[in-house]
Structure formats: C-alpha cells, structure tokens
Amino acid sequence: MITIGQIADLAGVSKSTVSRVLNNSGYVHEDTRSRIEAIIEQYHYTPSASAQNLSRRATNTIGVVLPELDNSFYMEVLAGVAEVVDERNFAMIVCNTSNDAKKERATLSMMEQQRVRGVIFAPASGYSDAAADKSIRLQLKNLKVPVVLVDREIKNAPWDGVFYENFQSGYLATEHLIQTGSREIGIITGDMDLKHARERYRGYAQAMEDYNLPVKDAYTYNGNYNVEVTYQVTKQMLQSGVYPEALVLSNNQTTLGFMKAMNESGLNQEGVQIRVVGIDHIPVLDMIGYQYNCVTRDMKSMGRGAIELLLARMEDEKKAREIRIVPCIKKFYD
Amino acid sequence: MITIGQIADLAGVSKSTVSRVLNNSGYVHEDTRSRIEAIIEQYHYTPSASAQNLSRRATNTIGVVLPELDNSFYMEVLAGVAEVVDERNFAMIVCNTSNDAKKERATLSMMEQQRVRGVIFAPASGYSDAAADKSIRLQLKNLKVPVVLVDREIKNAPWDGVFYENFQSGYLATEHLIQTGSREIGIITGDMDLKHARERYRGYAQAMEDYNLPVKDAYTYNGNYNVEVTYQVTKQMLQSGVYPEALVLSNNQTTLGFMKAMNESGLNQEGVQIRVVGIDHIPVLDMIGYQYNCVTRDMKSMGRGAIELLLARMEDEKKAREIRIVPCIKKFYD
DNA sequence: TTGAAAGCGTTACCAT
DNA sequence: ATGGTAACGCTTTCAA
Fold first, then answer.
1. Contact flag B284-A285 (C-beta cutoff 8 Å)
2. pTM of the shown model
3. Which residues pair with A189 in a beta bridge?
4. A57 touches strand D (CB under 7 A)
C-alpha cells in the first residue's frame, strides 16, 4: 500500500506538502500542487483513514444503533440518516441489537472502540427498572460523544431526541374508528415496557373516554410489538369467538401479525370483518396500492432529524437540548 | 480519552504488558494480569481501533456495497452477512450505491480509505459495454483486497461469487403457469443490462419453446426491475386492453409495481384476472399470509455464503475460485 | 515474565 | 511556499 511518504518522494517534496494538497490547507504553489495531484492519481493513492483518525484525534464516523433491521420503520429511518451522512461526507457504521440488551452492550463497546464521533440510538428495550435505566445511561455517557435518541425514549436522559406523537397516534387511530361508526373497539398493544407503547395505549383509552365508550379489559390484547406474538394472540382471539368489531394495531409488526392470522382464518371470506386502524404505515402495502387505514409519520425525516441534531450537537456541545416531536399523519381511506 | 500508556502507568507496568493482556498474547503473570484488568475495568478503557489498525497494518472491517437498501432482497442478504460478521467479531461498513455508478465509485474509494479487509459487492449496474466493464474491474482490483460478488455478475471477473439460478427461475416460473393451464403468457422483464435479467428472460422463453408456446413480442414488457417503471408499464398495458392471461414478474420490485397498477385499476373487482408468478418472494406478503405464487431463494443464506467465501479467501489468498449458485425454491399455492 | 524502542501513516506546528 | 519533526495510540521485536 502506497503511503504519503512515497508520494512525497515521488514528487520530490515533503510529506507536509502532500498533506497540504490532500486537505487543501495552507499554501502550496500551483505547479507543485498539480504535480503532486498527478502522482496521486497515477499511483492511485488514498490516505489511510486510520492514520488520519489517529493523527487528527478524531474519526469522521458516526454510529447508528438500531433494535431491528428487518423492520421497515427502522429501515426508513436509516435511509434518512444515510442521506445526510452522505451529503456531509461522514462514514456510518450501523449495528443491529435485535432488541437484546446484551448485544446492545457489545455494540456500544464497539462504537467506543471505533471512536465514533456521535451515536444515533434507539434503545433495545424500555429499561423500565431503575437499575437498567441507570446502567444504559451510564454506558451512553461513557461514550463521551453526542448521542441522539430516536423513536424510543430513555428515562432521565439528557440527550437530544426525535420522537413521535405517540399519544396522539393512539388517540387519532381510535377516534377514526369511532367517527366511522365503531363502538366496540379494542387494541392490540405493543411492548408495554416501552413508553411509547404505553402512550399509544393511553391515547386509545383517552379517545374512548372522550367519546363515552367503555375500555374493556377483554378487548385489550398484548401483541408485544412482535409479528409472531401478535399472530398467536389474534389467532386465540378469533378462536375464542369473542372479539370487538374494531381494533387499534399498535405498530407495523402488530399489523403484520394480525393480518396473517386474519388471512389464515379465512374469516374475511365468510364476511366476518374486524375494522382496523394501524399505527405506522407499511411501505410494501403502499406500493401495492393496498388501502390500509393508519396514522403514521414521515419516517425518513425522523432519520434526517436525528442526524441533523447530532451534527448540530457535534458543532456546539453546549447548545440547548433539542427534542423534536414529529407529527402524526392520517392516512384513512374510508 | 484514556490510553494504553496511562493504563500502564496506573498499573505500574509498561505498555507492552498491557498490550499483552489486551490481546492475551505472550506471557504475563497472573497477578499482573488481574491487576491490569481491574484498572482497565475501573477506568473503562477501550483500545482505539484506529491505533490498532495502524499498528497491525490491517483493519478488521469488511465492506458491503449494495445497490439498494429499500429492497427486501438486499436487506435479507445484509442480515445474513451481519450474522456472520458478528459471530466472527468483524466490523461491517455498509454502503448504498442507489444503482448509481458514480456513487459506486465514491463508495469504493471510501472503502479503500477505510482499508477494509474485503468487500462484498453487488454492482450498481450491468456494465455491459466493454469500457465500463473494464473500469469497474480495475477499481475493484485496485482495492487489493478480496472481493465477493453477490447476485449480480461482472463480465470477466476473477472473483468468488454467490449467484442465483436465474435461468431456472424464469423457466420454472413460466412452467408453472403453463402447467396450471395458461397458454398466453407474457413477462415483465428486468433491467436487460443486467445479465440476470437476460437469463430470467431466457428461462421464460425456453420454457415457452419447450411447451410449444409462442413468445410474443407484444407480451414482453420491460419493467426495468423498478417499481415505478413497472407500475407505468402495467398501467399502459391494462389501458390498451390487450394483455396476456398470465405474466412472469422478473423480481420483487416488478411485482410491487404490477400489483399497484392492478389494485388501482380495480380490474380484479370486475373479475378480470391476470395470473402471475413472480421471481423472488416478498417478506411482508409472507408475513401477512398473502399467498403469492413465486419462485425464490434463501436470501439470507446468500449473504452468509458471501461472507463465508470472503473470510475463506482472506485466509487463503490462492485457494481455488469458488462460485456458489443457490437453488431456486418453488412457492406455489395453486 | 517484563520493558524499551521502533514503527505504522498521518497531521500540524514551527522554522526557514 | 516548503520542510523537519513531534505526536497520535497501539503492536511487536529484541533484550534482559
């Protein structure tokens, strides 16, 4: 591998000069510059990022830690982040924690080793007990670089963040069902360990109350934000023969699990209908023009928001803490 | 940021010794080791990857270059790669070229700068003309690290690769339509610049011929492996009022575009049916239990295969070239 | 079993 | 406008 020193020798100048043309910093004669550039081109020289990082005492890498990669929501967020990272000429290192706190630990430690300049972080879990909450905050703090939280909050966290109008989403989803004629409305909740699942549920309950409708325990199902779990739960529900006329589905995975169980049951064919409004859209469904009622958000812009906050924080460590709450968008077809 | 030197001072030993416990290489007294480990723990020390890379003259990073990230196929491939990368304690740097040769250039150059140990590569384009073909091969060669091609071939390339039985996939898809009663069968092709699109088409044509059915130009549509293009093409086809009774859809994006146009047209409701077999499955459709006829492959294992080949090549530079062709799996529901 | 020192490929400061 | 050199944080060889 050719080094800056060899380029310098080839050009009959010092490393300093080559470095200057590389970073176009400082003065360098036009003739010298073009001579050096020619040689760089000819020998196909690219500086070593490791050496640069070491010398500059900083990388230009930012870390993105996500709990799921096979989830279109996080994929869109990631796409948003990637766009800006690209524009600004940073490198991005992506890790998947699979919703596993242990894997998350390892991931964060690798981020540290890589000396990332900042981290965009969606926690693997709700960290609802105090010890876990403290521990994750400590880990993050130990990184000693800016952190931006996306989608999922951490209690007592001091970091910037991009979140969603979760309460609203639950409320509006429910309200739509009510306004379009349903009265017996249930919900398949998410992982109640996560604050946003609780908020969405609160939104549902509040809407019911506002419209003087009863929230029945029997119509509250826990799908845990998980396709398989939701599938099982829905199957049981259908088999029991007692279920509400309408349901709020707490996220995209919930929707997927629910749909699978419904399709499998063949109940649709028999004319049995459960009306449904989901929280979060599902891109493939949009693409195939399937009219799926939901409330959703601009996911990509959540990613863009996160990286923007991160870059801003990197530039000004002491700027005021910023929390962005992206709004709820209605996508109703009836 | 604390360094190995400071840890050494704290422990009253030399950097060499700390380095030995870090990499557990060479001899170090049990007492010394535990003392050092305690300090490392206490001060939360993590070695700098950049410094290690520089010193070792090698990173433990592998690069993955993909043409699309919002495509479930590549996502599954990526997931497969990520699994192995994780198991083997490498780091992974992922780049999206958006099917853009120019962006691909930039990406490859960043890979070089990062001094990745190897690259898993799915080309952004077919590079069908000789100059482009040569240029991409040169770029890859200039990386001077092992390369494994996934899914898309490059002419005259010397690298290991994991590909698909493309001809078979086209053949089997078509054959199924024939065997289940269709005779007027068309195809929406992919980007014919790409060899695998041509192969899939060949498979289609061969099946037609084998069953003494005519391949009509009028029933060959070019969807370019693109949702939007396929959508438009399908719309035109439907509006023209003349179309075959059945179609082969050349990949998942093609399917999405086709379905959108169909759903939008409302033709299904009117009882108009176009039978369809797709190449590649669509995970969300599986999840919701939508019975979509297709021929497909184990995508994740393609990812695993790619990284396995890469690691093997990294260990033995001169081993025989290995090409894996993953088989076609039938998923028919009728 | 441990330490000293050279070296990895850059950058940046200080001279000139 | 250019060059010399120390420094970045680590690994590795050689010696003790």
1. yes
2. 0.93
3. A222
4. yes
